[in-house]
Amino acid sequence: MSEIRRAGGASGAGGKVAVRETATRLRVGVGAFQRRAREATNEGELTGPELTAMSRLDRRGPATTAELARLEQITPQAMGATVASLERRGLVAREPDAGDRRRSILTLTADGRNAVGSGRSALVDRIAAVLDASFTDEEIATLDAAALLMQRLADLV
């Protein structure tokens, strides 16, 4: 196994190359996963951006569209389209900000909380089935740990 440079640790040229190779493998692997996930999404199913926005609201509480856009590093207009779709489905509610009436605060509705809590996604069901059928318990545990690290990496990039 190649040496991986760690934060705060000493690193030679070999360590930097290994980190760059890891970054490349992550980019390629995540990109392929995203493409296949988009292809597998059924009509009417929540999209990745919709699920992400709802998960943010569930974990962090009420937020503005601009705050969600900043967290996801997308334009407010793109997040606005995502939020509008969620509002039409009754999964997100918009209320005026009591402190600044020009802003709107987004919250999950009861249906939105249920959707997040149940993981209502055919894609999640398909991924779970593939994991169950094709991966060992140890591999699933590794992917679970990697998923947490990927979320942390996404938050830092």
Tell me the layout of helices and strands.
Elements: H1 13-40, H2 48-60, H3 65-72, H4 76-88, E1 92-96, E2 104-108, H5 110-118, H6 122-134, H7 137-156
Antiparallel strand pairs: 1-2
Explained architecture:
- The chain has 157 residues and is mainly α.
- It is built from seven helices and two strands, in the order ααααββααα.
- The protein has a two-stranded antiparallel ribbon.
What is the radius of gyration computed over CA atoms, rounded to a whole number of angstroms? 19 Å
Shape: globular
Total number of beta strands: 2
What's the total helix number? Answer: 7
> What is the SS-derived class?
mainly alpha
Characteristics:
single chain, 157 residues, mainly alpha, 7 helices, disordered N terminus, WH-like_DNA-bd_sf, HTH-type_Bedaq_tolerance
Summarize the structure.
InterPro entries: HTH-type_Bedaq_tolerance, HTH_MarR-typ, Tscrpt_reg_MarR-type_CS, WH-like_DNA-bd_sf, WH_DNA-bd_sf. This protein has 157 residues and is mainly alpha-helical.
